[in-house]
Design goal:
The protein has five helices and nine strands. It has 187 residues and is α+β, with helices and mostly antiparallel strands.
């Protein structure tokens, strides 16, 4: 008997077309004498029905988030090429600016334009530290929600409130299409 591997509105990669699509309908194919469908096809709005083998699920949201296997984000100092050190004495570390790297090979990540750094270097230094801690904060939020969901009767009402807020943040981080979470980010 066939079981549906995907659900409605799930984002899937359609291998034969080479495009992302959302599942609009799940179509069971029944045969006489069977209690369950013998095959399942999916309508993704591309003009025909697709079988399980032709689709691939989007990576689960939890895998898309930074985790221990993704490495640690860290701050490197880059040389300030646009100003000599004597012209930027008001910077926290004259002659350099922070670069947050998110890759083990020390490239990829977050940089700031020189003019923006010069305008408010302390704010940029704070943002760099915040970004470098982001994977650890995500892990902390995950652990908080796990602890609260495993034993809600042992948690205080304040801890449960914080766990709900952490869950909203994790949902916002993992899915940029969420409506209520977007409103939460505006708070």
């Amino acid at each position: 008997m066939a079981k549906a591997l995907y659900h409605r509105h799930q984002k899937v990669w359609v291998e034969s077309v080479g495009a992302w699509a959302n599942i609009e309908r799940i179509i069971p194919i029944w045969a006489k004498g069977f209690d369950e469908p013998v095959r399942i096809t999916y309508d993704v709005g591309l003009g025909r029905e697709f079988r399980n083998e032709e689709l691939r699920a989007d990576a689960p949201a939890e895998q898309a988030l930074p985790d221990a296997e993704g490495g640690e984000w860290r701050i490197l100092r880059a040389r300030n090429k646009w100003q000599p050190p004597e012209d930027c004495g008001h910077h926290p570390q004259p002659g350099t600016f922070p670069v947050v790297v998110t890759d083990a090979n020390d490239w990829g990540g977050w940089r700031v334009p020189g003019a923006e750094y010069d305008r408010d270097p302390y704010r940029i230094e704070y943002q760099a530290r915040l970004l470098a801690c982001a994977p650890k904060l995500v892990r902390l939020a995950r652990e908080l929600t796990t602890q609260a969901s495993d034993a809600p009767e042992e948690c205080s009402s304040e801890l449960l409130r914080l766990a709900r807020y952490a869950k909203q943040m994790l949902r916002f981080i993992s899915d940029d299409q969420s409506g209520p979470a977007m409103a939460m980010a505006a708070e």
